[in-house]
Amino acid sequence: MSTSPTLDHSAVGRLDGAGGFSRRLSRARERWRMACAGLLPVLAGLCLSGVASTSVCAQADAASSYYRQARDAMDRGDEAQYRDYLGRALRELIAAIRRDPGDPEAHTQMGIILVYQGNLDQARKSFLNALRLHKRRSPRGARGDGIYYTNIAHTDLYRGKLASARRYLEIGRKRGAPLDEVDRIDTLLAWRSGDLTEAREVFNMAREGTRGYADTWDGVPLPQEMKRFEDFCAVCCRNPSCGPHLRDACASGAQAVKEREVSRETLAEEIRLERERQAKLKEIYEGKRDVSIEVEPSRDEKKPADVKPGSPEAPRSKPAR
Questions:
Q1: Per-residue model confidence (pLDDT) at position 191
Q2: How many domains are there within the chain?
Q3: Global pTM?
Q4: Is residue 126 part of a domain?
Q5: Are the C-beta atoms of residues 20 and 178 closer than 8 Å to each other?
Q6: Is residue 256 part of a domain?
Q7: Antiparallel, parallel or unpaired: β 220-221 and 216-217
Q8: What DSSP character marks residue 314?
Q9: Residues 38-92: pLDDT tens digits?
């Protein structure tokens, strides 16, 4: 994974001026265009949008609930509960896919879990699978599906693939992705690229004009609203799902990075569940001619089955003991 360049504060003044005004004007016009086209509603989930079937939504909702409880347990330091709820969440998602292999919702939720665990390559595959399945199911010319693209953009940003992240972000923006997510990724991209002026510009504009941008992070309410760009940086760097992927940017602002630390037992269980997830997906989709997804890792990736806890190839989690 490539790292972000160190911020060149001496160049900050040179990045403003006509170029900065042009970016602000372009962004303002895009917001107005999207508002006039009716593309700014916050998506409450793919199930509410009618993309997913009712039965699959019930299981996806159960999985989402289990995942939230898993996260809460990890925040409390209760790793046994975390492992239990994580297993339940993944079982519900596999059951949903068995019920309807063509539905994208469960793949999106799998991607979210994998990002949290730091398994970015497999997360990206899950988000791409969700997009592929969504395209098969949606009417030609349908819009309002930008969230599929911003999920990939966010993951590519964390992977250090900034050109790809920008490409998917722009598609997501044009296709009606939630504006708070678009602006959050836009801010992170500018910050990671070393363009501090652009990052502050996006932050200030979004804080004033985008609902949910300054008081939530990844859909979760923040303890207090972000009022300055430095607050935005602190929220990312103190979040183990964000900070470790923007380590250089955090360091440039003297922000401490919070690592995701888990026991070896938990790391081993995450790897076991990931191996099981891939095996079950392969079993479900094998032989299906009408629908297909990518399951196996690419040749240059090591399979979770081959990864030992604590090894460099393991998910980006630091064994706590």
A1: 97
A2: 1
A3: 0.77
A4: yes
A5: no
A6: no
A7: antiparallel
A8: S
A9: 333 323 344 544 545 566 678 778 999 999 999 999 999 999 999 999 999 999 9
Read off the amino acid at residue 285.
Answer: Y
Give me the amino acid identity at 197: T
**Amino acid identity, position 68:** R
Residue 237 lies in a domain: no
Bridge-based pairing of strands 220-221 and 318-319 is unpaired
DSSP 232-247: HHHHHHTSTTTGGGGH
29 lies in some domain: yes
CB atoms within 10 A of CB 174: 17
Instruction: Please count the CA atoms within 13 angstroms of the CA of 242 that sit on its side-chain side.
Output: 22
pLDDT in tens, 165-198: 999 999 999 999 999 999 999 999 999 999 999 9
255 has pLDDT over 80? yes
160: amino acid identity, one letter: G
Q: Token digits for 264?
A: 């070896």
**Which CATH number is 138's domain given?**
1.25.40.10
All residues at 6 or more sequence positions from 313 whose CB lies less than 8 Å from its CB, including other chains: 302, 306, 307
Contact 246, 255 (CB under 8 A): no
The whole domain housing 72 covers 9-35+51-228+262-319
What is the Cα–Cα distance from 105 to 60, expressed in whole angstroms?
Answer: 7
Residue bearing tokens 């760009």 = 229
**Contact present, 273 and 90 (Cβ < 8 Å):** yes
The DSSP symbol for 304 reads: G
Q: What is the spatial distance between Cα 214 and Cα 232, in angstroms, rounded to a whole number?
A: 8
What is d(CA 199, CA 184) in angstroms, rounded to the nearest whole number?
A: 10
Nearest Cα neighbor of 187 from 220, 115, 235, 116 is 235
